[in-house]
Write a structure and sequence with these properties.
There is one protein chain. The chain has 245 residues and is α+β, with helices and mostly antiparallel strands. The protein folds into two domains: 2-137; 142-241, Transferase(Phosphotransferase) domain 1 (Transferase(Phosphotransferase), domain 1). It has three helices and 14 strands. Strands 1, 2, 3, 4, 5, 6, 7, 8 and 9 form a nine-stranded antiparallel beta sheet that branches. The longest helix has 40 residues, at 202-241. The model has no long low-confidence stretch (mean pLDDT 93).
């Protein structure tokens, strides 16, 4: 196994050969002995529990020595899942969904944004396709915004989105379940699969907001719309006064 530093994320990179050649990134300070076994739920024994909701039956709460995480295998949704649920076309290591998400989370954490810490990410290549998985740190004591719409959290949620957008980050699926609320009212953003960071257009920002509005309406109907209107006003106020990352 080849081991080296990944300069783009500050992680340790390990690569292996064989019928299923692949590579992984890991936080060497948190998981000094990490290997590909981290992505097998069976490795954790009783320390692995399937995520009850979401995850397309491919996510588990896991724990190791001194850490708790969420293991997620990348799965397709929609019509294309009928062809292949977990295989993606190989376009090079830098374009694998797991490595892209790991590096994005690492960059956001370095900017002080409230997102889960990436612990490890991997891919396994077989011919023209690959499969992938990621482990991120589990945030304790949180619940989705979808379950907290009766509380005045619209400003805190809006400010978290403003900070994300000011950092140039676009979220591919900003919905009421990918915004988490801590017991202290702190807002966390999760699930950055397919997210990007760079020059963010007004259309992309509006697209994030529109997606969240649809989610809130689906979850709570008129109550969701009322929450959304307050969040929208808080977002544009925050954007105008320049909330910093």
């Amino acid at each position: 196994m080849k081991v080296e530093d990944d300069l783009r994320s500050g992680a340790r990179r390990q690569a292996w050969s064989g019928p299923l050649a692949g590579a992984m990134l890991s936080d060497a300070s948190r998981l000094p002995e990490a290997g590909p076994e981290l992505f097998n739920p069976g490795y954790y024994g009783d320390g692995a529990r399937p995520v009850d909701a979401g995850g397309r039956q491919a996510a588990w709460f896991v724990q190791g020595q001194g850490w708790q995480g969420v293991l997620r295998r990348y799965r397709r949704g929609g019509m294309i899942a009928r062809v292949s649920r977990d295989a993606y076309l190989w376009n090079g290591e830098d374009r694998t969904r797991s490595f892209r998400e790991y590096r994005l989370l690492a960059a956001m954490r370095a900017q002080g944004l409230d997102v889960p810490a990436p612990l490890a990410a991997a891919y396994w290549r077989q011919g023209p396709v690959y499969r992938a998985a990621i482990v991120v740190e589990r945030i304790p004591g949180v619940r989705p915004l979808a379950q907290a719409l009766a509380e005045p959290l619209w400003q805190a949620a809006a400010e978290a989105i403003v900070r994300m957008h000011r950092a140039g980050v676009w979220h591919a699926d900003l919905n009421a379940f990918n915004i988490l609320v801590g017991g202290d009212g702190r807002i966390w953003l999760i699930d950055f699969d397919r997210g990007t960071q760079g020059a963010l257009s007004e259309r992309q920002r509006q697209g994030n907001l529109d997606r969240l509005r649809r989610s809130l309406r689906k979850v709570a109907g008129d109550d969701g719309e009322r929450f959304w209107l307050r969040l929208r006003d808080s977002y544009w106020t925050g954007w105008g006064v320049g909330i910093q990352p």
